[in-house]
Input
Amino acid sequence: MIKQTAGIHHITAIVGDPQENVDFYAGILGMRMVKKTVNFDDPGTYHLYFGDESGSPGSIITFFPWPAAYKGQIGSGQVGTTTYAVPEGSMDFWERRLTKFKIDYEKTSRYGEDYVQFQDSHGLQLELVERKEGKNSEWSFGGVPSDKAIKGFGGAVLLSEEPTKTSELLEKVLGLQKIGEEGEYIRFKSISDIGNVIDVKKTVLPTGKMGVGVVHHLAWRANDDEDHKEWRLHIANHGYGVTPFKDRQYFEAIYFREDGGLLFEVATDPPGFAHDEPKETMGSKLMLPPWLEGKREIMERTLLPAVPRVLEEDEA
Output
C-alpha cells in the first residue's frame, strides 16, 4: 500500500503558565487562539490551540500548560525546533517585532533559506522562514497585520536517536520525498504547501527529557476517517505498535512511537474547530466534551486565566 501524508497536522508541546503561553502566541506572534478546552486525559489542565483564522491543518500548535511541571530538556527522541512560515518580504517586520518585545534571536541558513531562531517564554525552540507557498493567514491581532501574519508551520527539525531509521520511516511509511542532504541535515518534503518540510539532524544528541519547553508529539494529516483507518493498518503492517482510535473532538487520533524515539500521531483533517462553536467566536469560551460538561463550574473556578489580549507594547 502506497500512502502519502499531506504533512503536519499539528504539533503539541508542554508549557508553563497558561496566560504567559497565550500572551506569547496570540499577543506577540499574533496567532489566533482557535480553541480553549482541557486535556481530555488530564481534565484539570488546559489544552490550548493556536493557528490561522480557522485552525487549518498545518497551522495548529497546541499546548498543555502545566505551571508546576519540571523544565524539560530538548534532545534526541523529540522535535528539536518548530518552524513557522511567514510571507515573503516580512522578515524585517518580524525581526523588529522580536526586538520590540526584547526577544533574543539568531540568524542561520539551511538549504538556501534564511531562518530567524528564538525561544518562546517557556523555552520552546522556534524559527521563522519566509515561504512563497501556502496561503496567507486572514487573521490579524495586536500589532501583527494579516499580510505579515504566520501562515502556519514551515515544518520541523527532528532529533532522532536513530536518524537513519527515522529517515526511512518518513520516506517509506509516511510518503515524504527526500530532497537531499546538507551538512548536519537530511531534508524531506510532503505534498502539501504548508507544514511540509522536515529536516532530520544526523548527529545523535543525549536523549531529551519531557517537561516544560519541550514538544510532546507531532501529528501527521489523514484526509478523513476512511483514510485514517488505512493509516492505522499501514503503520501496523510496517511493524509499529499503534494505539486504538481516540476521539479528540476536533479530529480522530492514533499514536505510535518510531524507532528514533519520537512520538507521532496521525490526525484527521475533519471535523475541525468550528463544529461546536461559531467560527467568528472560536477560542473565546471554554469548550468541553459532553462527558466533562457536568464539571464545567468547578473547572471554570479552578483553571488559571488564559485570555488573548493586546499587550502593552502594542498599545503604546
Notes: Residues 225-237 form the longest helix (13 residues). The longest strand covers residues 42-51.
